[in-house]
């Protein structure tokens, strides 16, 4: 997966999240919709993390393909 693929995946996830949230206008989200949005948020965090680490490797002349997506448990426990 290269940077373009990661950005494309991020775009797709964001579009799905926006679609789900736009359906919520005027009514409450169901359990399934809330769970899907939560899953999308985790996937987005993982993708952004991967993209940043790939870009950092490229910046320092290292192989960006050495980076892999980190598990949700790792990414979701970063401190802001």
Can I get a quick summary?
With 80 residues, this protein is mainly α.
Walkthrough of the structure:
The protein has 80 residues and is mainly alpha-helical. The protein has helices spanning 3-23, 31-59, 72-75. The chain has one domain. It is built from three helices and no strands. α1 (3-23) runs antiparallel to α2 (31-59). It is elongated, with a radius of gyration of 15 Å. The model has no long low-confidence stretch (mean pLDDT 92).
Element-by-element helix/strand order: HHH
Low-confidence stretches: none
The CA-CA distance between the termini, in Å, is 26 Å
Question: What is the total domain count?
Answer: 1
Over all CA atoms, what is the radius of gyration?
15 Å
Q: Notable features of this structure?
A:
3 helices, elongated, mainly alpha, about 80 residues
Task: Furnish the topology, listing elements before pairings.
Layout: H1 3-23, H2 31-59, H3 72-75
Helix pairs in contact: 1-2
